[in-house]
Write a structure and sequence with these properties.
Blueprint lengths: L11 E3 L3 H4 L9 E8 L7 H10 L3 H13 L8 E2 L2 E2 L2 E7 L2 E8 L3 E9 L3 E10 L2 H27 L2 H4 L1
Antiparallel strand pairs: 1-2, 2-8, 3-4, 4-5, 5-6, 6-7, 7-8
Helix pairs in contact: 2-4
């Protein structure tokens, strides 16, 4: 039984821990951020958490995310499949971590790493730029990204995956 509800007042922004950063598939990391939230005893896998974060968000939020990502050139896959989480390709996964990947036409690659620890969840973003234009786009994306990710992590921690399935 999952007892995660109400354990933490909300996510905290942190530097990505080494055990999370090493799961990025990027050659070079030009931008990174991470949020963590304390959890109670849980049984959910990292993939369940990733799907809860992105695919269980309210329909308007999911639509906003996909539209925003697409507007800035994210090459998304299916909204939900065994190989994708809200369009992000599953690059690698184990029970306690998953790496989602997307290539953007503006010249960047992004990884979203979800890591489940015994008492916490860490969600980290890693970005690699390979075109100058992507650095300019990042200036517009990051503020919205940080607000959205904080909301998604907070919402998921209040409604853990095992309690919704």
């Amino acid at each position: 039984m999952v007892t995660n509800v109400g354990v933490s007042p909300g996510p905290r922004k942190i530097a990505p821990p080494d055990d999370v950063r090493e799961r990025s598939a990027l050659r070079r990391v030009d931008y990174q951020d991470a949020f963590t939230v304390r959890l109670g005893d849980g049984v959910s896998s990292a993939e369940q958490w990733a799907r809860e974060l992105l695919e269980s968000a309210p329909v308007p939020v999911r639509a906003f995310l996909r539209a925003g990502w697409s507007m800035f050139g994210a090459q998304l896959g299916l909204a939900s499949s065994s190989a994708h989480v809200l369009g992000w390709k599953i690059g690698a996964r184990e029970a306690d971590w998953i790496r989602l990947e997307v290539l953007w036409k503006v010249g960047l690659r992004a990884n979203l790493v979800v890591r489940v620890r015994p008492d916490s969840l860490v969600v980290a973003t890693f970005v690699e730029h390979f075109r100058h234009a992507s650095r300019l786009v990042r200036l517009f994306l990051i503020p919205v990204h940080l607000v959205a990710l904080r909301y998604l992590v907070s919402r998921a921690a209040r409604c853990p995956p095992a309690m919704n399935r």
